[in-house]
Write a structure and sequence with these properties.
By secondary structure, this protein is an alpha/beta fold. It has nine helices and ten strands. Helix 2 (about 140-155) packs parallel to helix 3. This is Signal peptide peptidase SppA.
């Protein structure tokens, strides 16, 4: 306290707030009209009514903290529920995909078996030859030969029909199918008919030539009796970008088709002999299948492709028509059954995935460099 008698009572020496004399003996503060609340370290000011005591203010603060915690917990629970919903959705979707794939596989194995459900009434036994003929495609020799035998053994099949829509492909696969058709044809139990849709060229015509009869649309593309090898020469490009090609071989001609090395005259002559011999086999098999129905035109085996109408004049086909006309002529109605074995969905998916990966990596290549 100051000793200055002129200072008014109740003031302090430059200090804010009441002095000890402003408080009574029970600790009440005349400025707040209530019990003194000691300040807490780091405490936030509490809102409330002016006449709220300290206990009420603490209770209000506690309730505010609980409300804030409730909001936080609610947000966390909402996010967890949302996450669980998405997890459940993806799990149900994966389960659906697995169940559909499983059902498709079981259906193809047990219920969609053509040999098990073949009708006894007269019908055409269809075998599809669609797309490129290759060992890793749906039009492979094993699958088509299985379909041929299924249709041949079916009691109600009045004829076996090769439904062809293919630009050709592998010589080996085509020759295997050709040989099987000729074997069945020699038995003579039922006719084998090739019906060409849009395209029946090269290896596809190789197959058709083994049939007893070939039918095509007037605008079908038929023929292309030839052999082709196609490649690229990158020897100049690799020299320009400064890349050294390192190839080790055992045998002086082992790498003669390497696209990064020049194809010399001797190697080119050798490879042309391989193509000519394969072409000669193609021609001999077509002549064996078609016999005297072929014309004497030298252009037939030149690799040209003909329309169905032109092919009729050249003896490449026997008549113009369609699958429906064949069915009406043979069984009196458009009644046919597809005996081509169903594709395994898992195998098809795996094969397609492998092809895509090979194409992306740049390592995809046909099983043989020669193409019909």
């Amino acid at each position: 306290m100051s000793d200055d008698p002129n200072r008014p009572s109740g003031t302090n020496d430059g200090r804010d707030g009441p002095t000890n004399d402003d408080r009574n003996e029970v600790g009440e503060d005349r400025w707040t009209q209530g019990s003194e609340v000691p300040p807490s370290k780091g405490a936030k000011p509490m809102s409330g009514a002016p006449d709220d005591d300290a206990e009420t203010l603490r209770e209000r603060q506690r309730l505010a903290q609980l409300e804030m915690m409730d909001h936080w917990i609610g947000g966390v629970l909402t996010e967890q529920r949302r996450t669980r919903r998405w997890k459940l959705f993806f799990r149900l979707m994966m389960l659906t995909i697995v169940l559909v794939a499983l059902f498709t596989t079981l259906y193809s194995l047990f219920w969609d078996s053509s040999s098990a459900t073949a009708p006894t009434q007269r019908h055409l036994g269809i075998v599809e030859v669609s797309g490129v003929i290759a060992s890793d495609s749906p039009a492979n020799a094993e699958r088509i030969i299985e379909g041929l035998n299924n249709a041949w053994e079916a009691e109600g099949a009045a004829a076996v029909v090769l439904h062809i829509n293919s630009p050709g492909g592998s010589p080996v696969q085509s020759q295997r199918i050709y040989a099987e058709i000729m074997r069945l044809r020699e038995q003579g139990d039922k006719p084998i008919i090739a019906v060409i849709e849009d395209v029946g060229a090269s290896g596809a015509y190789y197959i058709a030539a083994a049939a007893n009869e070939i039918i095509a649309s007037p605008v079908s593309l038929v023929g292309s009796i030839g052999v082709i090898y196609a490649g690229f020469g990158f020897e100049e490009a690799i020299a320009r970008i400064g890349v050294e090609r390192r190839v080790l071989t055992a045998g002086e001609n082992k790498a003669f088709l390497d696209p990064f090395q020049p194809l010399d005259e001797e190697a080119e002559q050798f490879w042309q002999e391989v193509l000519s011999q394969t072409h000669r086999q193609f021609i001999d098999d077509v002549r064996a299948g078609r016999g005297g129905r072929l014309s004497d035109s030298p252009d037939i085996f030149s690799g040209l492709v003909w329309s169905g109408e032109q092919s009729l004049d050249l003896g490449l086909v026997d008549q113009l028509g369609s699958l429906e006309q064949v069915a009406r002529d043979r069984v009196g109605d458009t009644n046919w059954v597809d005996y081509t074995p169903s594709l395994d969905p898992f195998e098809r998916l795996t094969r397609r995935f492998t092809q895509v990966v090979a194409e992306v990596l740049g390592v995809s290549a046909p099983a043989t460099p020669l193409r019909f």
